[in-house]
Design brief:
- By secondary structure, this protein is α+β, with helices and mostly antiparallel strands.
- The chain folds into 2 domains: 69 residues, Phosphorylase Kinase, domain 1 (2-Layer Sandwich); 184 residues, Aminoglycoside 3'-phosphotransferase, Chain: A, domain 2 (Alpha-Beta Complex).
- It has 11 helices and 10 strands.
- β1 and β2 form a beta hairpin.
- α7 crosses α11, α8 crosses α10 and α10 runs antiparallel to α11.
- The N and C termini lie far apart (52 Å).
- Keywords: Kinase, Transferase.
- This is Thiamine kinase.
- It comes from Aliicoccus persicus.
Length: 263
């Protein structure tokens, strides 16, 4: 990023972005710079899902840098995930033909449940597989694979935790950090959202703001995708030797698996 230092910008690495994203300041102007962002960023900006994309430049290293409006604000608090604005924005994302068309142009195909399960099985360590809760979840995942229906296919974020929801000082709501974007069953976002943040008694109300009814098929799909994402999280924490977090997710995995045992 030497190019921007030479132009007089003051750069500060943004936490959590592994040195690829920066807050840039010059003469009172602030930008969010990121190296090697996906071309998908333009579609997200156009839809108002992320802060406005201002320009894209290729620098001397050959890397592509994007600049977005810097938004002063904060991430959502856990209790704010029940706000009607969250499901409304998520519905806008899942319903966007522009976003879906862009990812298809980038060569992305829908993520079949069987492929997701194969990828997870290939990454699991011996230590994680030894855990009975994980093994029980894997049996459930193998025997209850949902069918990916055309009407349920959408652009999914894949990591809708509250850290990725930005509320600006102007009361604008954004969903950021789209590195894991995929074409998949919308239940992959909905399940983790509901199981993690929303009281069970409030699921129907939350989904009404999204525009869906809570039927048995949706519950089955959400449970399946939440389980497989949770197993992935357990392995990630084991890989990074964050064992307290790993155990917390194992408890969550058992909680989800035991809920709705009839489905």
């Amino acid at each position: 990023m030497e190019h921007f230092y030479q132009l007089g910008w003051v750069l500060e690495t943004v936490n959590g972005e592994s040195g690829s994203a920066y807050k840039a300041e010059q003469d009172g102007r602030k930008l969010f710079l990121k190296r090697n962002s996906s071309p998908f960023l333009l579609a997200l900006s156009t839809e108002g899902i992320v802060p406005k994309l201002l320009w894209t430049k290729r620098i001397e290293t050959g890397e592509v840098v994007t600049a977005q409006d810097w938004k002063n604000g904060r991430e959502l608090k856990k209790e704010e995930m029940s706000s009607s604005r969250v499901p409304e924005l998520l519905h806008k994302i899942h319903s966007s033909e522009r976003l879906l068309t862009m990812l298809k142009k980038l060569g992305m195909a829908p993520m079949e449940p069987s492929l997701l399960l194969d990828k997870v099985n290939q990454t699991l360590s011996t230590e994680v597989i030894k855990n009975k809760t994980v093994r029980d979840a894997l049996v459930y995942l193998e025997t209850h694979q949902p069918t990916l229906s055309e009407k349920d296919i959408a652009v999914c974020h894949g990591d809708v935790n509250h850290h990725n929801w930005l509320l600006s000082d102007q009361n604008e709501l954004f969903l950021v950090d789209w590195e894991g974007a995929m074409i998949a069953d919308k239940a992959i976002d909905l399940g983790m959202m509901l199981y993690t943040y929303i009281d069970r008694d409030s699921w129907e109300e939350w989904l009404s703001h999204y525009g869906l009814e809570l039927d048995i098929q949706l519950r089955k799909r959400m449970k399946w995708y939440t389980l497989i994402q949770t197993v992935t999280m357990i392995q990630w924490y084991e890989d990074n030797k964050r064992f307290n977090d790993m155990n917390r997710w194992i408890i969550f995995l058992d909680h989800v698996r035991r809920q709705d045992q009839f489905i």
